[in-house]
Design goal:
7 strands; disordered N terminus; about 200 residues; Znf_C2H2_type; elongated; zinc; Znf_C2H2_sf; alpha+beta; 7 helices; repeat; two-stranded antiparallel ribbon; single chain; about 10% strand
Length: about 200
C-alpha cells in the first residue's frame, strides 16, 4: 500500500499527497468521503457517524441537538419536546394533512369531489376526515412509505422512515442530505405548508 493511498478519494479513487489536498478535492467536487477527520476508512456513512459525531440536527422547536434526523424525529414522536406539544400521533396527523401529494404517506387521494381511502376506498368530504378515518381502529398500518417510488418499504413512524433514508439502502439520498430533508420537512410542518417534492430535493 503506497503512502498516498491514505489520501485518496473513495468516490473517484484519485490519490493526493496530503489530507489537505484531498479535502480541497472533496470540497471542490462535492464528492463524499467518510475520512474527513482522520485517515481511517469507513464502510458506510453510519459507521463514520458512529465515531465522528461532528454533524448535528437541531430540533426546530426546542433547539436540542441530535446526531441524526431520525433521532430528532424520535424526540418529537416520543413527546419529549417541551416546546412543540407533539407526539407520534399529532405528528402523523400533521404530516398526513399536509402531504396532499402522498410524498411520505399513502392514506388516499382526491378523486373528484371526495377523498378516497387507499385501503378501503371509503370516501370523505375533507382530507382531515380521511386522516381521522386512517388513524382510527379501522386501519392499523404503516402510514409512511419511502420517498423512493422504486422502494416498497413502509414504516410505522417517521423516525423509522428517516433511519431507512440515513442507511442509504435504497439509494434515494446521500446521508449528508438527510438533515436538509429534516429541516425542509419540519419547516413545512411548523408553518402548516403543504409537503412538496422540493422538501426532498426533487
Amino acid at each position: 500500500m503506497s503512502p498516498q493511498s491514505n489520501f485518496s478519494c473513495t468516490s473517484c479513487a484519485r490519490s493526493f499527497s496530503s489530507p489537505f489536498a484531498r479535502y480541497q478535492h472533496l470540497r471542490d467536487t462535492k464528492h463524499q468521503d467518510f475520512r474527513l477527520s482522520c485517515n481511517r476508512q469507513f464502510d458506510s456513512p453510519m459507521d463514520y457517524r458512529a465515531i465522528h459525531r461532528d454533524m448535528h440536527v437541531e430540533c426546530e422547536f426546542c433547539e436540542e441537538q441530535f446526531l441524526t434526523a431520525s433521532g430528532a424525529f424520535h424526540h418529537l414522536e416520543g413527546g419529549c419536546c417541551e416546546k412543540s406539544n407533539t407526539n407520534g400521533d399529532t405528528l402523523a396527523r400533521q404530516i398526513q394533512n399536509l402531504d396532499i401529494d402522498n410524498i411520505l404517506t399513502d392514506i388516499g387521494e382526491h378523486n373528484g369531489g371526495q377523498w378516497k381511502c387507499s385501503l378501503c376506498s371509503k370516501g370523505f368530504r375533507t382530507r382531515s376526515a380521511l386522516v381521522m378515518h386512517w388513524n382510527s381502529p379501522a386501519h392499523s398500518s404503516k402510514p409512511y412509505h419511502c420517498i423512493n417510488r422504486g422502494c416498497d418499504k413502509h414504516f410505522i413512524t417517521l423516525s423509522a422512515l428517516f433511519q431507512h433514508l440515513e442507511s442509504e439502502s435504497c439509494g434515494i439520498a446521500g446521508f449528508t442530505q438527510i438533515p436538509l430533508y429534516y429541516l425542509r420537512l419540519t419547516d413545512s410542518i411548523h408553518n402548516g405548508e403543504q409537503i412538496t417534492l422540493f422538501d426532498f430535493g426533487r
